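Same chain as my last thread, 138 residues:
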Amino acid sequence: MTLPFSHYLTAYGIAAVVFLGLDAVWLGTMASRLYRPSIGHLMADGFATAPAVIFYLLYLVGMVVFAIGPALEARKPMQALAMGALLGLICYATYDLTNQATLKDWPWKVTVADLIWGTFVTGVSSAVATRLTLAWRG
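reply #2:
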């Protein structure tokens, strides 16, 4: 960590706003179009807040440690895009491919959509957080 800690906190906050905003749109749009028709029998009517909050807090730490932080130090937002995309692919694949391997009739279309989404949202959020942090903090 060669930059001041405030840079990482700033990036975390920006990444949180971008990631949560994009994910809210995705989930709000795709719940009824993809998830309910495909895996509705597995879904609860609502969601448990505590696990969701813990997931987002931890996932954002992973984004900062593995994608955003190194890109901030290198001053390369495109590095954050690439490494964030890779992180998103790996993390979302962990969830979906485990479900694919262990759950009866887990649909491939959910797996493919999630892998694409995880790659996109993590890459874009990482790049935006890096770019805006560099612009604001220098």
